[in-house]
Each structure stands twice: as C-alpha cells, then as structure tokens.
Amino acid sequence: MTIRKLRIDALPENYSYRDDGCDIHPACLTCPLPQCRYDNPRGARGMFNEVRDVEIVRLRRKGLAINEIARRYGISRRTVFRVMRRSIEGTSGKADLLSSSLDFLPLLERKAG
User: Fold this and answer.
1) 31-76, pLDDT tens digit by residue?
2) How do residues 62-74 score in pLDDT, each as one tens digit?
3) 6 Rama sector, left if φ>0, alpha if ψ -120 to 50, beta otherwise
4) Burial annotation 44-64 (CB, 10 A radius, 16+ → b, else e)
5) How many CB atoms lie within 10 A of CB 32?
6) Which of 31, 49, 51, 106 could form a disulfide with 25 if both were Cys (CB 3.0 to 4.6 A apart)?
C-alpha cells in the first residue's frame, strides 16, 4: 500500500480564498446580512423588502399615518396596506426573524439613497 502525498493547497487552511464580496458589501466574511444575497431565493431585494416590511409594521403600530409611511419608503399606499395585511395574517415569513436583528439597516438606507 502506498501513501499518497497531499497537495499543500488541498487543505482549506493552506488555500488563499478570495473574498470579493458583492455589490452590497465588499467582503463576504464581514457582511452584516443575516443570509447571503445569493442564498436567498428572492435575492437582495427580497431581504431588503422583508426588513422594510418589519419597519412599516412597527411604524404603523406606533401610529404613523399610511400616507407618511408610503412617502418615507417611496411606495404606494396600496403596498403599505398589503404589508399590514400580511402581518395580520401572519404570512410575513422571515420578517419576524429579521425584526430581532436589524443591524444591517444602514445598508438598506445606503442602497435606497
């Protein structure tokens, strides 16, 4: 039986990985998003919309007017009503999970601006 020699670059700790990031964040390993935009079936836009929806529900519960919420996010009144309906029906999906960790909101504001 012969023992095969391993290539030095075969071990993960001996390989220099490129961490190029994406258009949202320059490095994958330090990205504040809870899930990679490429791993989410709805993509980055879907993740940002989920965060936006959580914020819309929060603002509405605080008593902010529908018109003001729509103006603030650049969406229609109808979209605000849809978001509110989904939150009442409990079909918000991952938005409930995201509400606890919204540390990447500055990315959303930067992308919108």
Assistant:
1) 887 788 888 787 888 878 888 999 999 999 999 999 999 999 999 9
2) 999 999 999 999 9
3) beta
4) beebbbbbbbbbbbebbeeee
5) 13
6) 31
